[in-house]
Amino acid sequence: MESVGTKLKSWLCWSWTYICALWFAMVLTMVYVLRSPLKLQETVNAASVFLNTLTPKFYVALTGTSSLISGLILIFEWWYFRKYGTSFIEQVSVSHLRPLLGGVENSSSVGLFSSVNGDTDCYFLFLSECKVWRNPLNLFRGAEYSRYTWVTGKEPLTYYDMNLSAQDHQTFFLGDTQQLRPEDSVMQKAWRERNPQARIRAAYQAIELNRECAAAYVLLAEEEATTITEAERLFKQALKSGRKLSHCHTYIATGKDTNLVVYIKRRLAMCARKLGRIKEAVKMMRDLMKEFPLLGMLNIHENLLEALLELQAYADVQAVLAKYDDISLPKSATICYTSALLKARAVSDKFSPEAASRRGLSTAEMNAVEAIHRAVEFNPHVPKYLLEMKSLILPPEHILKRGDSEAVAYAFFHLQHWKRAEGALNLLHCTWEGTFRIIPYPLEKGHLFYPYPGCTETADRELLPSFHEVSVYPKKELPFFILFTAGLCSFCAMLAMLTHQFPELMGVFVKAVSICIVLPQDACSSVLLTARVPNKFKISLNDFIFCYLYID
To answer: From the record, what ranges are coiled-coil (predicted)?
Structure first.
């Protein structure tokens, strides 16, 4: 039954175009047959008389109004394109008009990715790259994000980003026991609160119910603590409570209790890193990765890489990259650009573009350039932040891999490491744009990675604050309707100006054009030659008519 319905629907979609053409032909035939009863000739003549009686002021008002309306449409279209990255008229046409005309959803994207690798696995890999990930190096709300708000008056986090964090905390921290603990119920509501003060009050309420509620101390450390030192103290209290809970016989220790302990230890390591105790932070991160090897999705190795780069322990950084920069593991900007930094550091201090153009690139320089091209292909937004061609903002709590949000998060923490390597930024500046000559265009397939996903712009606009100009790759061409409305607005404005300056000439021109459209060419010629034109315009008008109306 379903196959019959599908065939019927496909047949209707196929025949819809021909039905519309047949209907249009029938309407034209009916108009032609009924031209005498409908008195079409008299109607046309009456319209001609009406047009002849119109004054130039009418045409000025008409063209001026058309210019105003098309200008307003142009402004709205441009604003919508800047905000959402697409044309409003085009979106409405595709979403609402196309289904009415029998259109179907474009399924060519699956075939596109199937043609690259021979199956649809790449397509599902493409979809997975549009997943939003927790930022491994996210800042503390109370000690860092809130201080930015106090100073600038701007909110660095979007509601969408904070809502994702609330969902993460509910999923990651709350126990799996069949009978939900009272303090867990309070914390479940606390994470959902939009008001920070309401969340803090709920955390204190949970502590009143259970002095060993680790999740409540985590919330206070994240949001109430105004310094890193105070946040570290609260995290230590949360770790102490979490360990007591895991050894308690009243409740069965669950996987989510373990997740809470892992989160607390990681944040303690980040506190140590921010307070300058970098070796202690590295040890805590290594112990955490050794104790919980299956929690690789938390990307603790990215925290470790940043701390090792701060210590300038490049051999240890290379050892971590050798383990995680594997073809079977998901990539990130941290892995790709750190690998490029290590290879660039080996040659950047002696690199000169002039010398390289004369003698060619050495093997080590070629490896460095290829590593930069690989990193730029993975995330093309990063170089502009590293080269300080775009201003940095505080990184969001969630990032989209290969998107602008990931680029902001990487450059915020790693720009100092690139500056420390002498000549590394110079090498990046000289070579990063060469990546785009390697990537096939249009972006139907990648060079070293799968095609660049098209969903990044929409997700990045949700993750990044409104005052930040989102970086878009590949650059989108202006939609047709923006160009069309711009041309229409300019044309109508030009007609309004000419009609206002030369009313008699434009009146004769409009009458001449309307007569040429309605009457045959011979009659049009006689009318034009006998037209009453002011003497000062007669020569130029005749030349104009001869050039534009009588030359085939």
So the answer is: none
